[in-house]
Fold:
Amino acid sequence: MRSLLTKLLVLLAIVVLASWTPSSARQATSTGQGPALTSMGPLAFGPDGTLFAADNQAAAIFALDLGAQANGGAAGAKGLDAVNEKLAALLGTGAREITITDLAVHPRTRNAYLSVMRGQGEGAAPALFRVDGNGAITMVSMQTVRYQKVELPNAPAANPTARQNPRTQVVTDMAFADGRLWVAGLSNEEFASNLRAIPYPFASVDTGTSVEIYHGNHRQLETRSPVNAFVPYMLNNQPHLIAGYTCTPLVKFPIASLRPGDKVRGTTIAEFGAGNRVLDMIVYRKGGQEFLLTANNSRGVMKIPTSTFASATPITTPVETETGGVPFEKVTSMTGIRQLDKLDDSNSIVIAQNASGALNLQVVPLP
Structure:
């Protein structure tokens, strides 16, 4: 009898183990052709031209193989005045009915890609456009695009009545580095601010790392404000993420510390002023030095030497002045910047809003 009971217990254990997967990981949900995105926000290219697109409404990320649609246009990207009006016309609507949610440059063709939402609220629909070196605008057809998709396992629930619906911040920024897609945004964890690494090709996605920062201007630790923009960057031969927040701390995270399920505190190295939100950032090299270039919604564009990042004194106590930490300079020649990416070694490409409210696609020399 005991032998039979033992065999039954062993069999039960095998069944349970075979059906169990860790709560910290979720398998890639689907692959195929013709992705059905419900929204399109942040974009990021992999080195092979794979385009990663965040669908915040569905709490999912798509890896898009653009195939032949990435070819055929003139190399580079040309500036276009009132690009929002041109995109709206192609979608059969008015400029007020579209939102340009991100801008990304293809690593080989240097064409610019724009993610767009047409309409407002639940009726809004995503679209993707390419702008080439002649200024030709092409809408990317999703019907022939092959894709992989992962759903984020711990996304916050939608709350349309909130001051800012947390569902719109499931993914706030993405970047590809060393075979992994790094993703910033919000989770439904107690420490809601989240950084996660998803290996590509997609196989599974975990709950990510909960992150907190000390905000010198706010005089407190913060766990619920998401990273708005970030870049992978090497400091002392160790990979880091350099991240920007609202109001406007600059923080570094050693990638080695970002383990799934852990809670990690970043090192704040600058405060760039209250009442401000970083929108985008890029790293570039000029005159033998490297710089971080950040676009901000109320404090313009900032040029920050990266040589100070490794040795910067951590900000761990209240900052009584308007700004503090690593030095920066304002780039007064760049105004109204809403989206920013590096076009090539000499130029950036931006979406800039002019005095009349029109959005212009502009190629701007790196300062």
